[in-house]
Write a structure and sequence with these properties.
single chain, alpha/beta, 9 helices, 223 residues, binds pyridoxal-5'-phosphate, globular
Protein backbone atom coordinates (compact mmCIF):
# COMPACT_ATOMS: atom_id res chain seq x y z
CA UNK A 1 0.00 0.00 0.00
CA UNK A 2 1.16 3.54 -0.66
CA UNK A 3 2.45 5.87 2.00
CA UNK A 4 -0.45 8.23 1.37
CA UNK A 5 -3.01 5.45 1.83
CA UNK A 6 -1.19 4.24 4.97
CA UNK A 7 -1.29 7.67 6.52
CA UNK A 8 -4.98 8.15 5.70
CA UNK A 9 -5.80 4.82 7.35
CA UNK A 10 -3.72 5.69 10.42
CA UNK A 11 -5.29 9.11 10.78
CA UNK A 12 -8.82 7.83 10.26
CA UNK A 13 -8.21 5.19 12.92
CA UNK A 14 -6.68 7.60 15.43
CA UNK A 15 -9.03 10.57 15.19
CA UNK A 16 -11.59 10.58 18.00
CA UNK A 17 -15.29 10.21 17.29
CA UNK A 18 -16.71 13.50 16.07
CA UNK A 19 -13.48 14.77 14.50
CA UNK A 20 -13.40 14.82 10.69
CA UNK A 21 -10.32 14.88 8.48
CA UNK A 22 -9.78 17.33 5.63
CA UNK A 23 -6.94 16.10 3.42
CA UNK A 24 -5.27 19.36 2.36
CA UNK A 25 -4.25 18.58 -1.19
CA UNK A 26 -3.18 22.01 -2.43
CA UNK A 27 -0.14 21.92 -4.73
CA UNK A 28 -0.38 18.13 -5.03
CA UNK A 29 -1.28 16.34 -8.25
CA UNK A 30 -4.60 14.57 -8.76
CA UNK A 31 -2.79 11.20 -8.66
CA UNK A 32 -1.98 11.85 -5.00
CA UNK A 33 -5.60 12.78 -4.26
CA UNK A 34 -6.76 9.57 -5.95
CA UNK A 35 -4.53 7.51 -3.65
CA UNK A 36 -6.10 9.19 -0.66
CA UNK A 37 -9.55 8.67 -2.15
CA UNK A 38 -8.76 5.00 -2.62
CA UNK A 39 -8.01 4.78 1.10
CA UNK A 40 -11.47 6.12 1.86
CA UNK A 41 -10.76 9.85 2.13
CA UNK A 42 -13.65 11.97 0.88
CA UNK A 43 -12.99 15.53 2.11
CA UNK A 44 -10.26 17.47 0.34
CA UNK A 45 -9.07 21.01 1.07
CA UNK A 46 -7.77 23.45 -1.53
CA UNK A 47 -6.56 27.02 -1.12
CA UNK A 48 -6.63 28.34 -4.70
CA UNK A 49 -9.83 28.67 -6.72
CA UNK A 50 -8.29 27.75 -10.06
CA UNK A 51 -6.62 24.66 -8.67
CA UNK A 52 -9.86 23.53 -7.06
CA UNK A 53 -11.95 24.01 -10.20
CA UNK A 54 -9.30 22.14 -12.23
CA UNK A 55 -9.34 19.18 -9.83
CA UNK A 56 -13.08 18.81 -9.32
CA UNK A 57 -13.88 17.21 -12.70
CA UNK A 58 -10.87 14.90 -12.39
CA UNK A 59 -12.05 13.36 -9.11
CA UNK A 60 -15.10 11.22 -8.26
CA UNK A 61 -18.35 13.11 -7.73
CA UNK A 62 -18.73 12.15 -4.07
CA UNK A 63 -15.65 14.15 -3.01
CA UNK A 64 -16.52 17.01 -0.67
CA UNK A 65 -14.37 20.03 -1.45
CA UNK A 66 -13.45 22.54 1.24
CA UNK A 67 -12.04 25.89 0.28
CA UNK A 68 -9.48 26.96 2.89
CA UNK A 69 -7.56 29.87 1.32
CA UNK A 70 -8.07 33.60 1.10
CA UNK A 71 -11.01 34.14 -1.24
CA UNK A 72 -11.08 37.16 -3.53
CA UNK A 73 -14.53 38.50 -4.27
CA UNK A 74 -14.15 38.20 -8.05
CA UNK A 75 -13.65 34.44 -7.66
CA UNK A 76 -16.55 33.61 -5.36
CA UNK A 77 -18.80 32.79 -8.30
CA UNK A 78 -16.63 29.83 -9.28
CA UNK A 79 -17.05 28.18 -5.89
CA UNK A 80 -20.80 28.47 -5.44
CA UNK A 81 -22.40 25.08 -5.95
CA UNK A 82 -19.00 23.39 -6.12
CA UNK A 83 -17.73 23.44 -2.54
CA UNK A 84 -19.30 21.69 0.41
CA UNK A 85 -17.71 24.19 2.83
CA UNK A 86 -15.96 27.55 2.44
CA UNK A 87 -13.84 27.61 5.60
CA UNK A 88 -12.23 31.00 5.14
CA UNK A 89 -14.86 33.75 5.23
CA UNK A 90 -12.88 36.70 6.56
CA UNK A 91 -15.13 39.74 6.09
CA UNK A 92 -18.81 40.70 6.24
CA UNK A 93 -18.58 41.83 2.61
CA UNK A 94 -17.38 38.41 1.48
CA UNK A 95 -20.17 36.75 3.43
CA UNK A 96 -22.77 39.05 1.86
CA UNK A 97 -21.45 38.27 -1.61
CA UNK A 98 -21.50 34.51 -1.01
CA UNK A 99 -25.08 34.86 0.21
CA UNK A 100 -26.23 36.90 -2.79
CA UNK A 101 -24.62 34.61 -5.37
CA UNK A 102 -25.91 31.49 -3.59
CA UNK A 103 -29.46 32.88 -3.54
CA UNK A 104 -29.20 33.72 -7.24
CA UNK A 105 -28.07 30.19 -7.97
CA UNK A 106 -30.73 28.66 -5.74
CA UNK A 107 -28.24 26.84 -3.50
CA UNK A 108 -27.32 27.06 0.17
CA UNK A 109 -23.61 27.54 0.80
CA UNK A 110 -22.07 26.34 4.05
CA UNK A 111 -19.31 28.50 5.47
CA UNK A 112 -17.04 28.93 8.46
CA UNK A 113 -15.93 32.30 9.77
CA UNK A 114 -12.14 32.53 9.93
CA UNK A 115 -10.93 33.99 13.19
CA UNK A 116 -7.47 35.39 13.62
CA UNK A 117 -6.00 34.21 16.92
CA UNK A 118 -2.35 33.83 15.89
CA UNK A 119 0.44 36.25 16.71
CA UNK A 120 1.38 36.90 13.08
CA UNK A 121 0.08 40.07 11.50
CA UNK A 122 -0.27 38.62 8.04
CA UNK A 123 -2.94 36.01 8.51
CA UNK A 124 -6.45 36.75 7.28
CA UNK A 125 -9.52 36.55 9.42
CA UNK A 126 -11.79 38.42 11.80
CA UNK A 127 -10.29 39.47 15.08
CA UNK A 128 -12.17 37.97 18.04
CA UNK A 129 -13.70 41.39 18.76
CA UNK A 130 -14.84 41.89 15.18
CA UNK A 131 -16.42 38.48 15.22
CA UNK A 132 -18.24 39.13 18.48
CA UNK A 133 -19.50 42.46 17.08
CA UNK A 134 -20.71 40.71 13.95
CA UNK A 135 -22.71 38.16 15.92
CA UNK A 136 -23.98 40.69 18.46
CA UNK A 137 -25.34 42.78 15.58
CA UNK A 138 -27.53 39.86 14.55
CA UNK A 139 -26.44 40.40 10.93
CA UNK A 140 -26.39 36.65 10.36
CA UNK A 141 -30.18 36.64 10.61
CA UNK A 142 -30.49 38.40 7.25
CA UNK A 143 -28.64 35.63 5.38
CA UNK A 144 -30.88 33.95 2.84
CA UNK A 145 -28.74 31.23 1.33
CA UNK A 146 -25.72 30.82 3.61
CA UNK A 147 -25.35 28.60 6.63
CA UNK A 148 -22.63 29.63 9.07
CA UNK A 149 -21.53 26.26 10.49
CA UNK A 150 -18.81 27.47 12.88
CA UNK A 151 -15.28 28.84 13.01
CA UNK A 152 -11.93 28.16 11.41
CA UNK A 153 -8.66 29.14 13.08
CA UNK A 154 -4.93 28.76 12.68
CA UNK A 155 -2.50 28.87 15.57
CA UNK A 156 0.69 30.90 15.65
CA UNK A 157 3.42 29.33 13.54
CA UNK A 158 5.82 28.51 16.39
CA UNK A 159 7.45 25.58 18.19
CA UNK A 160 6.08 26.96 21.44
CA UNK A 161 3.23 24.52 21.99
CA UNK A 162 2.00 26.51 24.97
CA UNK A 163 1.28 29.39 22.63
CA UNK A 164 -0.34 27.08 20.06
CA UNK A 165 -2.61 25.61 22.72
CA UNK A 166 -3.55 29.08 23.96
CA UNK A 167 -4.52 30.14 20.41
CA UNK A 168 -6.76 27.09 19.95
CA UNK A 169 -8.25 27.67 23.37
CA UNK A 170 -9.09 31.25 22.39
CA UNK A 171 -10.92 30.07 19.25
CA UNK A 172 -12.81 27.40 21.15
CA UNK A 173 -13.87 29.81 23.90
CA UNK A 174 -14.96 32.30 21.26
CA UNK A 175 -17.23 29.75 19.63
CA UNK A 176 -18.87 29.07 22.98
CA UNK A 177 -19.27 32.79 23.66
CA UNK A 178 -20.95 33.27 20.27
CA UNK A 179 -23.33 30.41 21.04
CA UNK A 180 -24.19 32.11 24.31
CA UNK A 181 -24.79 35.50 22.64
CA UNK A 182 -26.81 33.99 19.79
CA UNK A 183 -28.98 31.17 21.12
CA UNK A 184 -30.96 31.23 17.87
CA UNK A 185 -27.86 30.33 15.82
CA UNK A 186 -28.47 26.77 14.62
CA UNK A 187 -25.86 24.24 13.61
CA UNK A 188 -22.92 26.39 14.69
CA UNK A 189 -21.04 23.24 15.65
CA UNK A 190 -17.92 23.06 13.53
CA UNK A 191 -14.55 24.14 14.87
CA UNK A 192 -11.92 23.72 12.17
CA UNK A 193 -8.44 23.84 13.66
CA UNK A 194 -5.29 21.77 13.64
CA UNK A 195 -2.75 21.05 10.90
CA UNK A 196 0.00 18.46 10.49
CA UNK A 197 2.15 19.72 13.38
CA UNK A 198 -0.51 20.69 15.88
CA UNK A 199 -3.71 18.74 15.24
CA UNK A 200 -3.47 16.69 18.42
CA UNK A 201 -3.40 19.84 20.52
CA UNK A 202 -6.27 21.26 18.47
CA UNK A 203 -8.36 18.16 19.16
CA UNK A 204 -7.59 18.50 22.88
CA UNK A 205 -8.95 22.02 22.68
CA UNK A 206 -12.17 21.03 20.96
CA UNK A 207 -11.49 20.84 17.22
CA UNK A 208 -14.10 18.95 15.16
CA UNK A 209 -12.32 19.28 11.81
CA UNK A 210 -8.58 18.93 11.27
CA UNK A 211 -6.91 20.12 8.05
CA UNK A 212 -3.87 17.97 7.35
CA UNK A 213 -1.67 18.29 4.30
CA UNK A 214 2.05 17.67 4.73
CA UNK A 215 1.66 14.66 7.03
CA UNK A 216 -0.40 12.93 4.32
CA UNK A 217 1.05 14.10 1.02
CA UNK A 218 4.58 15.17 1.95
CA UNK A 219 6.10 18.57 1.33
CA UNK A 220 4.47 20.88 -1.16
CA UNK A 221 6.39 22.14 -4.15
CA UNK A 222 5.14 25.70 -4.55
CA UNK A 223 4.57 26.79 -8.11
C1 LIG B 1 -1.94 24.49 3.88
C2 LIG B 1 -2.97 24.58 4.94
C3 LIG B 1 -3.17 23.54 5.87
C4 LIG B 1 -2.33 22.27 5.90
O1 LIG B 1 -1.10 22.50 6.51
P1 LIG B 1 -0.05 21.29 6.77
O2 LIG B 1 0.93 21.87 7.72
O3 LIG B 1 0.53 20.94 5.45
O4 LIG B 1 -0.82 20.15 7.37
C5 LIG B 1 -4.19 23.68 6.78
N1 LIG B 1 -4.97 24.76 6.81
C6 LIG B 1 -4.81 25.79 5.95
C7 LIG B 1 -5.71 26.96 6.04
C8 LIG B 1 -3.80 25.74 5.00
O5 LIG B 1 -3.64 26.77 4.15
Amino acid sequence: MSRIADTIHELQASLPEGVELVAVSKFHPVEALREAYGAGQRIFGESRVQELTDKVPRMPADVRWHFIGHLQSNKVKYLIGLTSLIESVDSPALLALIDRLSAERGVVTKVLMQVHVAAEETKFGFSPDELLDFFRSGAYRTLKATHICGLMAMATNTDDMTRVRADFHTASALQQEIRRICPDLRGFDTLSMGMSDDYRIAIDEGSTLVRIGTAIFGNRVYT
